[in-house]
Amino acid sequence: MLGSLSLLASLLACVATTDVDDTATAADTADHIGSDLVLQDVNNYVYSGTLDAPSRSLASLTDADISWSTLASDIQCHDVDPVEDIDNASLLVFPYLTEEEVEVGFTEDTLVQKDLGVYLSVETGDQTTVSLSDFTFFGTEVDIHTAFAEDTGTWLVLLATGTQIGVGTRMLTFIEPSDDATQSTVEIEDGCGVLEVAVDLQSLEPVPTRADGPWPVSWDDLTQTGQGNPFVDTEVSEVWLARYAHGITELEDAFLDLELLAEETWTLDHPGGTTADLADATTSADTPFSGFDEGETWLLALMCGTCPTPAPLFLTVLEP
């Protein structure tokens, strides 16, 4: 969701007002609402996911072919055109991790640089099949197929929309070099069911906000993501706001479709820091955000454009 592991996949609270304690009057709180949307851990959703990527054995030391000509759905169960929607194929080798450990690392966003031994890629153009020898290290040719040997680690192929590293993942498949295998071609299958998620939007404390502004947002106090990992300010690449006619329960059940279900969305690129102003957010048609309507459901997210999971770092409910 919301960008990709892009995949992918993967997508992903109450405002604690400054110096307002539990004894503050309703009038005091109403006067303060919206002067600063202070995002805190109690405002954040809870996200958990499981990844069960297919694994296919291929003959060792062969220049194996990888095809996605029949791919029709991605890991979020969204439709995929194998030519129009797949721009890049990546090959990742994790020398010391099992397939299960890689899956957990992707879904929990715990993979680190030292886990990855090889990263290669190829821009696919109109192709729906590539060979191992087509993958390069940022344009430098590498005879990776000569290293495609049994017991050399976990090999993973990612298909993505766009060419930015780690962004836009649509499908992923493990390829296992085996001395006993004779197959030298793998057909990447549809992604429905590969990623399962569970989301809790009902236990968080919603953030009250003024309908007509101002809407400065700050997240200095955030310490962890919705997945329970340490919150890193520099990972925030975008502030995302959406309006829905659906209730919270429906949105939990259809979490991977949050972008599709939204009546309207606004985004704001975030170059750094821990503050933003929703007045600067715009629709895809560059229409600026102008205010909240009561009686609808509003979600606010802090997105990470380079994280392996499509889940937001932070996601909360706003209450005008």
What do you see in this structure?
8% of the residues lie in helices and 30% in strands. By secondary structure, it is mainly β. It has two domains: 26-48 and 199-319, no CATH class; 53-193, Immunoglobulin-like (Sandwich). The strands form six sheets. The chain has a five-stranded mixed β-sheet with strand order 3-11-10-5-6, with no helix packed on it. Strands 14-20-19-16-17 form a five-stranded mixed β-sheet, with no helix packed on it. A hairpin with an 8-residue loop joins β10 and β11. Residues 1-34 have low confidence and may be disordered.
Highlighted features:
320 residues, mainly beta, Immunoglobulin-like, 2 domains, five-stranded mixed beta sheet, 4 helices, 20 strands, disordered N terminus
Helix content: under 10%
Helical segment count: 4
Proportion of strand residues? 25-35%
Work out the number of β strands: 20
Please give a quick description of this structure:
The protein has four helices and 20 strands. It has 320 residues and is mainly beta. It starts with 25 loop residues before the first helix and ends with a strand.
Q: Any chance you could write out the topology, listing elements then pairs?
A:
Layout: H1 26-32, E1 37-38, E2 46-51, E3 55-59, E4 65-67, E5 88-94, H2 99-108, E6 118-123, E7 129-131, E8 136-137, E9 140-141, E10 154-160, E11 169-178, E12 185-187, E13 195-200, E14 207-208, E15 216-218, E16 238-244, H3 248-253, H4 258-261, E17 264-269, E18 275-277, E19 297-303, E20 314-319
Parallel strand pairs: 1-15, 3-11, 4-12, 14-20
Antiparallel strand pairs: 2-13, 4-7, 5-6, 5-10, 8-9, 10-11, 15-18, 16-17, 16-19, 19-20
